[in-house]
What does this fold into?
Amino acid sequence: MVKRLFYNIFTSKKKKFANALANVERDGVILEVDPGNKWFAAVVHYKLDEIRNNERARAPNLVLVRKKDLRQVAHMRLVVDMEKSELLLGDFESRIENKGYGSILLRNLIKFAEELDITRINGNLSSTDRDHFDKLEHLYSKYGFKVKILGNSGTILLEIK
It folds into this structure.
């Protein structure tokens, strides 16, 4: 009886995760799924072709969803300007720190930019994050970004070849 109950709970989570992936894939782009199916990273609400074919700036979100509770645990708000071949990182938040979710999103941000033939990613570091500038500088630098901190704010820039 206990085995059966555990099996039903596990199967239910598996189905919910598969359904979440299918829903995102229908009107977004799955960028990466953890080999152990613990999370996935995706661009939601826009397909790549919709972004490529529209010269106006688009504002997709890059999200990381955990299988455990199907919650979005980290996200990036983006602005894509295909005319300028530029991607602006507008906001970057993670509900859970020190689990590598920021690295997963940055890796997928770069992958997303490359798929769109974007040549630069830039953004600003907010004064609200000034207590974490050292951590942010380390994270962005690890992925090749140039980080400039100027008092209570800063900028990030990645030129993509």
Summary: Helices lie at 2-27, 48-52, 101-115, 133-142. The two ends are 58 Å apart (CA to CA). DSSP finds four helices and eight strands in the chain.
